[in-house]
Design goal:
- The protein is an all-alpha fold and 149 residues long.
- It has ten helices and no strands.
- Helix 5 (61-68) crosses helix 6 and helix 7 packs across helix 10.
- The chain is rod-shaped.
Length: 149
C-alpha cells in the first residue's frame, strides 16, 4: 500500500480504495468470529457491580451507557442479548429479591421497603412485586412468616 501511495501511478486512488476495503473486510471477519458476548464480558463485571451497588437508586440506561462509553440503545441490546432480560427487568429482579429479604427479616412497613429499594411510587412497587412473585408484599410477608412458625 505504501509503495502504491508513493508511486502515485494512474489509478492509484482506486488501488488504495481496494486495499482499504480488503483491510476493513478482514477486520469485520475477525470481529464477527469473536462473539459480541466475549467483548461485552470485558465490561460486564464493572457494570453489574455498579448496578448491584446502586439498584436502590434511579438507574437509567443512558446513565449506565455513559459509564461504559456506549450508545444507550446499543448497551440495551447487548445487555438483553447477554443476560436475556432487559436492564429494567434486571434492576427490578434485584429490587424484588432485596424486598423479599426485607419482608422476611424485618418489621419495616411495606411502603418504607418499597421506597428504600428505589420505588418512589407505592403502586409501582406493588405492581412489580406482584407480577414477579405472584402475590402482594403483604401476602408474601404473611406467607413467609407463617412457613417459619
Amino acid at each position: 500500500m505504501n509503495a502504491e501511495r508513493k508511486a502515485k501511478e494512474p489509478g492509484y486512488e482506486l488501488a488504495m480504495e481496494g486495499y482499504m476495503r480488503l483491510i476493513f473486510s478482514k477486520i469485520i471477519r475477525v470481529l464477527r468470529k469473536s462473539s459480541t458476548h466475549n467483548f461485552f464480558d470485558a465490561i460486564t463485571p464493572g457494570l453489574l457491580e455498579y448496578i448491584d451497588a446502586n439498584f436502590t437508586q434511579k438507574l437509567t440506561l443512558a446513565e449506565l451507557a455513559d459509564k461504559c462509553f456506549y450508545n444507550p440503545a446499543y448497551l440495551g441490546r447487548l445487555f438483553k442479548n447477554t443476560f436475556h432480560v432487559t436492564l429494567h427487568e434486571y434492576v427490578n429482579e434485584k429490587r424484588v429479591a432485596f424486598a423479599k429479604k426485607m419482608l422476611q427479616e424485618t418489621d419495616e412497613p411495606i411502603d418504607t421497603i418499597g421506597t428504600q429499594i428505589g420505588y418512589a411510587d407505592r403502586k409501582q412497587f406493588y405492581k412489580v412485586f406482584k407480577q414477579m412473585v405472584g402475590c402482594t408484599p403483604k401476602q408474601y410477608r404473611e406467607n413467609s412468616r407463617g412457613a417459619v412458625q
